[in-house]
Design goal:
Blueprint lengths: L21 H12 L4 H17 L4 H17 L5 H16 L3 H9 L6 H4 L7 H18 L7 H14 L7 H13 L3 H17 L5 H13 L22 H15 L8
Amino acid sequence: MALFLVTGGCSWKRGPDASPIDSDLRRIDSLHEQRITRSHLEDSIRLAEQMAIEHPENPEVQWRVARGLTAMAYGYPGEDSEALLLESMEWGRRCLRGNPGWVSREQLSGGKVTRRAALRLSGVDLPCLEALLTGWTRWVVLRGAAAHVDLDSLQVLARRAVALDTEQQGWVAPWALGLSLGLSAAHAEAMEEAEGLLSLAASREPELATPRIDAVYMHRRWSEAAGTAELLDVDLPTYAAHKWALENRRAVQRELQMRDGEPSGSF
């Protein structure tokens, strides 16, 4: 599904730019790009997990495992989706632990996400952070109210990602922050901020339906009569060669499920 910046308080660097495993990483990415075919996504995850055994401390491998697991859980939803997302979240957090500043703050807080820990994250952590945000946000939506205790932590990380992503201008950070704010919104002003962030995410990746369908979902949580027609009025690429084919196919499925009043449309 998608996914990563310089900052105060931390001057460490991950390692040399070039790596002997680059060809395998490119192979993982190539398979992931073909994730509209389930077997290709499975092969991508399998290869990334094999590489993680050989290179257990490599963040480039770790966030790719997390990315693949989230794509499988969301793009091919089933009984194992929750377990896949939990595993993805663990890989994302493991990836962030390559940053010693994050590790020290995480240990001091007993494993909890804190603003001080988030401030230790820098630009090089953005792939890990976006992978974690994608899986964690999806898990919260899937679990519903039972997982809303995690929204504060999600918002801390998402705000950090927004602050860090000044160059790539990616969609993940504003999407995760907007959706997490929308899920916890208690008044109209909070909803307006959430809507603005989801609109920003959609504008940054205009051929990706995810921010749009999640905006529809968020509106329906506030009003059952709201937002049932927006998505299919947009021409969304779902042909197999398109990079967002899997996510867009799932978005169309979700809108149809929401139209029929099925709770599965939320995820």
